[in-house]
């Protein structure tokens, strides 16, 4: 019972930290992380709710996962849809925080905080092996379909999201939005920060949650 409580607790903390990290990323003015660049650009161009657009993208990811998984699809993947709804509510709530920094060094520090929170959040959620973030699930499905690891799938998904964002922004807004220095830094650094968190925290987390390292699939 105690291990189960730790497992659920780690997962929920990871969910909140991930939502805060992604929200702070949008507040830097340096460009957002690749995955949320698509909903962020759409919400800016058409003045739509960012959290709602994120929910729509995540729901699309869920159905694409099931398509990519083919005969190996699991209906439990659909649980990612209610996850997406809860996550979108958190994004909307944290998005109301009045954060607006002017100096470049301040926004770079904010970006660093956003990346660290995102990495810790992903680490907590992935290791608990409950309902995955749809973006992580999509990356995993892509990697498996191409006979590569989740890390390769994540890189491919990031590049695809950046390309789609550029096309939408230029075609409908006349200029590129959501993509900037922060996007490039996030593409390079978040994965490394996740790897660092895994080395530092994975074993004690799994022990408290009553899991073993064998339960956690390799991401790379």
Provide an overview of this structure.
- The protein has 220 residues and is mostly helical.
- It has one domain.
- Helix content is 74%, strand content 0%.
- The chain contains 8 helices and no strands.
- Helix 3 packs antiparallel against helix 4.
- The model has no long low-confidence stretch (mean pLDDT 90).
Number of strands: 0
Main beta sheet: none
Mean pLDDT across residues: 90
**In what range is the share of β-strand residues?**
under 5%
Q: Which of globular, elongated, flat, extended, rod-shaped describes the shape?
A: globular
Low-confidence stretches: none
Order of helices and strands: HHHHHHHH
Query: What number of domains?
Result: 1
**What is the SS-derived class?**
mainly alpha
Write down the oligomeric state.
Answer: single chain
- CA radius of gyration is 17 Å
Tell me roughly what share of residues is in helical segments.
over 70%
Number of helices: 8
Distance between the termini: 32 Å
Summarize this structure as a short list of keywords or feature phrases.
220 residues; mainly alpha
Secondary structure elements and their pairing?
Elements: H1 2-27, H2 34-46, H3 50-69, H4 80-94, H5 104-128, H6 134-145, H7 150-173, H8 181-208
Helix pairs in contact: 1-4, 1-5, 1-8, 2-3, 2-7, 3-4, 3-6, 5-8, 6-7
């Amino acid at each position: 019972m105690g291990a189960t409580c730790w497992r659920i607790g780690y997962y929920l903390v990871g969910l909140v930290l991930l939502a805060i990290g992604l929200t702070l990323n949008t507040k830097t003015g340096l460009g957002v992380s690749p995955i949320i660049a698509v909903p962020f650009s759409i919400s800016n161009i058409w003045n739509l709710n960012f959290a709602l657009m994120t929910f729509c993208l995540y729901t699309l990811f869920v159905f694409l996962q099931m398509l990519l998984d083919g005969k190996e699809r699991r209906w439990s993947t659909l649980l990612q849809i209610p996850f997406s709804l809860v996550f979108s509510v958190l994004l909307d709530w944290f998005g109301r925080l009045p954060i607006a920094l002017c100096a470049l060094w301040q926004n770079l520090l904010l970006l660093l905080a956003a990346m660290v929170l995102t990495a810790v959040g992903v680490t907590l959620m992935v290791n608990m092996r409950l309902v995955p973030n749809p973006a992580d699930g999509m990356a995993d499905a892509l990697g498996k379909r191409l006979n590569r690891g989740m890390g390769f799938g994540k890189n491919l998904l990031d590049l695809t999201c950046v390309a789609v964002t550029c096309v939408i922004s230029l075609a409908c807004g006349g200029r590129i939005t959501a993509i900037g220095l922060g996007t490039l830094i996030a593409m390079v650094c978040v994965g490394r920060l996740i790897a660092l968190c895994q080395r530092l925290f994975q074993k004690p987390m799994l022990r408290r949650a009553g899991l073993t390292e064998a339960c956690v699939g390799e991401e790379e």
